Amino acid sequence: MPGAVIAGGWGLLAGSALVAGALIGYLVRVPPKLVAAVMAFGSGVLLSAVSFELIAEAHRRGGLLPTTLGALAGALLYTGANLALARRGARHRKRSGSQQPSEPDLPGSGSAIAMGALLDGVPESVVIGIGLLGGGGVGAATVAAVFVSNVPEGLSSASGMRRAGRGPGYVFGVWGCIALVSGLASAAGYGLLGGVSGGALAAITALAAGAILSMIADTMIPEAFEDAHMWIGVITVAGFLVAFAISQAGG
After folding, report:
1. Distances (CA, A) of 220 to 36, 40, 151, 247
2. What pTM was estimated for this model as a whole?
3. Are 23 and 151 a contacting pair, CB within 8 Å?
4. Does the pLDDT value for residue 31 go beyond 60?
5. Contacts of 172 (CB under 8 A, 6+ apart)
């Protein structure tokens, strides 16, 4: 089976967690403290994957300079795109409360939220495809981290979409399309980057890592600490350690 197809399958699997989370968030009224706890766990999982799977791998492939420049570029690109979308109503796209604007309140916000969700998901998916390059298997920790973190992302965002008056067609259309794009992005990460040098691949991996780290700080952590209680820090560390354990087991 072609490697790009395999990579696309892994990306689609990880992206499907968004749909599962959205289904829970839209149909079930999840207590805010539970949403915060699940988002904190997902944040810890992704922080671990960025540290041990992405930044460490970029450094191994290309050294400190490409890793540093790539991560900074990813953070700047993500932040710039996020600022543009925030002005159109996508600032609180992962919030489960009443922060999201409705379409009558801010026309065009629905499209901006959809684009913002796409912006959040593509870097995660690309690195899954990159992980298959060189003949190795996809990093179990990377796929697990993206899958686990996607559940609370979809859950929280869908809860906010429901509160903003958006119907199930919009909610599940958005997350279904993003799951499909996740598969395509993983396939593209494998198919388009196979011939690049180690330094360039390191920079691209670090770029995705910088974008993901910026996404965690800007969209996931605020939701995790919206209804903060004394165990949020412990839950975040637990997510971090679970992903680290998976990484070590896979190594």
Report:
1. 9, 8, 12, 22
2. 0.88
3. no
4. yes
5. 19, 22, 23, 26
Q: How far apart are CA 212 and CA 92, in angstroms?
A: 17
- CB distance 133 to 7 below 8 Å: no
**The two structure tokens encoding residue 147:** 């899958």
The one-character DSSP state at 251 is -
Q: Which residues of 5-38 are buried (b: 16+ CB within 10 A; e: fewer)?
A: ebbbbbbbbbbbbbbbbbbbbbeeebeeeebbbb
pLDDT digits (tens, 9 = 90+) for 124-136: 888 888 877 755 4
Identify the CA nearest to 213 among candidates 22, 87, 44. Answer: 44
Look at residue 97 and tell me whether its pLDDT is greater than 80. Answer: no
Q: In whole angstroms, what is the distance from residue 251 CA to residue 246 CA?
A: 9
Q: pLDDT digits over 134-187, tens only?
A: 554 456 678 888 888 888 888 888 888 888 889 999 999 999 999 999 999 999
Quote the percentage of the chain above a pLDDT of 90.
35
Q: What's CA 223's distance to the chain center, in Å?
A: 14
